[in-house]
Amino acid sequence: MTVTGPQGFRAAGIAAGIKASGALDFTLVVNDGPLDVAAGVFTRNVIKAAPVLWSQEVLKQQRLKAVVLNSGGANAATGPGGFQDTHATAEKVAEVLHTGAIEVAVCSTGLIGERLPMDAVLSGVDTAVKALDASDEASLNAARGVMTTDTKPKQAFAKAESGWSVGGFAKGAGMLAPNLATMLSVLTTDAVVSKEALDRALRSATHVTFDRLDVDGGTSTNDTVLVLASGASGVEPTDAELTELLTRVSLDLVLQLRADSEGATKDVNVTVQGAESETDAIAVARTIAEDNLVKTALFGSDPNWGRIAMALGRVPARIDPEQVSITINGVTLFAQGMPAADRTEADLTGRAIEIVVDLNVGGEAATIYTTDLSHGYVEENSAYSS
Amino acid sequence: MTVTGPQGFRAAGIAAGIKASGALDFTLVVNDGPLDVAAGVFTRNVIKAAPVLWSQEVLKQQRLKAVVLNSGGANAATGPGGFQDTHATAEKVAEVLHTGAIEVAVCSTGLIGERLPMDAVLSGVDTAVKALDASDEASLNAARGVMTTDTKPKQAFAKAESGWSVGGFAKGAGMLAPNLATMLSVLTTDAVVSKEALDRALRSATHVTFDRLDVDGGTSTNDTVLVLASGASGVEPTDAELTELLTRVSLDLVLQLRADSEGATKDVNVTVQGAESETDAIAVARTIAEDNLVKTALFGSDPNWGRIAMALGRVPARIDPEQVSITINGVTLFAQGMPAADRTEADLTGRAIEIVVDLNVGGEAATIYTTDLSHGYVEENSAYSS
């Protein structure tokens, strides 16, 4: 149990026939209350998929009874017809659950530019409603129903000492990037929370977790993170407690997304510290994380700090070349404008790589979670239309 | 003859012993006048190699007698010692040519963070000076002396009807990116020109050529484009004529650089038109050109316009999703917010790919010259320290 770990939630994941393979492709999460408070963050791409346009609209009132998700098609760049398909899906879920469509969020993931097979989607709603359950199996199936090139489901759960908890699942294997990855995630909590507190906590949590995952710089048309609160635990945490637990579960999911991202053979943390502002720290870390020459060197287990220096030097941030130091897996290779140790002293043969860049001009820091660039990434993304 | 195509120039390319392989690694270009006017543009990376710091300084007076270049080492991130090496190289060239070091530019390319073998460099100057010649062979050797992962030398030449000409060579196979590629290029002309006219013409030419080549988003620490004018033709072209011929030769070199860039299997032009500003057009074209999901799809000959839509949607430019059209190799696949034709109608099996994005919100346009992202790129950059 993860998305159904917190009290007051049921979920289902089924094969609705959207994917030709017959794999699970349809997920439903229902909040049985007593509260129906919700919050969401969405892709900043100006090209937004129909389900994002819909869910952004319904989230304005911050109340959700259910979230319906499908893999096998992104329903993006599909025009007014695609939007009608999303609307019809929400209406169908609302009808079966005896609620209003305004309380139903919709998420889709898959190929851009293709309409969904609506017969399969609508009959999938009926099948999914019958399968709704709070069991571990239902929870796992819900996580499976949103997988595309993911090789495994991603679930997380954490419980506070005072008895309330946060759970959730996520999907996303490529197009993982600035400001939310290709990513769908549904989080649940049985805490008693106000709309305002839940919204603040979600934004704080995603700012340092989902927003910091950057596999390939792509920002999907469909990125969505939703959190639903049932209040079923009867416990009202402080803002800090809520943010802390949401952040912990989100980071857990982000690290699972990174580990399973397309072609990844390295888990790379790029930390920039000593920056004048958090904005500078994020920009420098992101540029290093997205640089293909850095990423291919990491694939080759090569501590090529020269490429890191090249990458950071092209960021419009406050950087003094004489002050910068570059440390890889604990070995400082560059400092005071010149080499500080032989590159061979840094061992990059393991899967985990820690790059720490100290700009030494301020007190701000940020970490971006990324991967290497491997043959597997090229293979998967040149052979697979997604 | 190319760099020695214009009258008044001699060149040499030799093996100085900087590269362990014994390949050519040292190039000298000399301007025999009567003029010694010059102009240069340099990397915008804040981490600048020692030869860039030196050459930027000497170019302030816009007079050059010679340019000395080496491959086998970038002399970047090498501290004060590295700068002294560059200075010593310029002094040595000046001494042998009976001029001042202030008239000698220096360029280096190769691995970042390693000092150059100065015995080899300084004795290379003596050998190169003896080999100076205006022949085709000397010109070709000069182009070869700067090669790193380039598989072939890049030379270009164009002559105006009124009898003056522009020639040159370039190198650069990876780290080819925003605002000059990893790139060294020396251009020559026998036109009679003022410092001001030459500087303006070089900036105009590079703005639409070298600045528009973007293979992998990397901006090298060493990027340099120099132009030397001898005045030996006795002909003084207009500003427009000078800019036109410099642009033509620069574009010729840029397309050669693209064709020979690491792992490239496709020559891709990304043109954005109908933009509100040239800045918007460049930003959108560059983001599409740098997107790994777009680049891997092109490697797979897949007209995956959904990835192009995703990429352009994350640019902070004026974009109305309903107005955008995407055309690949002559087939419009996306328009008015939805698919306009079946993707299979666009044939991407050839090497040349033309992507045209019309934003339909203005009258500005720009083209970025890029490539696909292939297994060859990953292989070359994970196995080779550069």
Automatic annotation (TrEMBL), chains A, B:
The record marks 109-110 as: Involved in the stabilization of negative charge on the oxyanion by the formation of the oxyanion hole. It catalyses: N(2)-acetyl-L-ornithine + L-glutamate = N-acetyl-L-glutamate + L-ornithine; L-glutamate + acetyl-CoA = N-acetyl-L-glutamate + CoA + H(+). InterPro entries: Arg_biosynth_ArgJ, ArgJ-like_dom_sf, ArgJ_beta_C. Its main location: cytoplasm. This is Arginine biosynthesis bifunctional protein ArgJ. Pfam families: ArgJ (PF01960). Belongs to the ArgJ family. GO terms for cellular component: cytoplasm. The gene is argJ. Its EC number is 2.3.1.35, 2.3.1.1. Substrate binds at residues 148, 171, 182, 262, 381, 386. The record marks 181-182 as: Cleavage. Keywords: Acyltransferase, Amino-acid biosynthesis, Arginine biosynthesis, Autocatalytic cleavage, Cytoplasm, Multifunctional enzyme, Transferase. It is found in: Cytoplasm. Pathway: Amino-acid biosynthesis; L-arginine biosynthesis; N(2)-acetyl-L-ornithine from L-glutamate: step 1/4; Amino-acid biosynthesis; L-arginine biosynthesis; L-ornithine and N-acetyl-L-glutamate from L-glutamate and N(2)-acetyl-L-ornithine (cyclic): step 1/1. GO terms for molecular function: L-glutamate N-acetyltransferase activity; L-glutamate N-acetyltransferase activity, acting on acetyl-L-ornithine as donor. It is an enzyme of class 2 (transferase). The keyword Signal does not apply. Heterotetramer of two alpha and two beta chains. GO terms for biological process: L-arginine biosynthetic process; ornithine biosynthetic process.
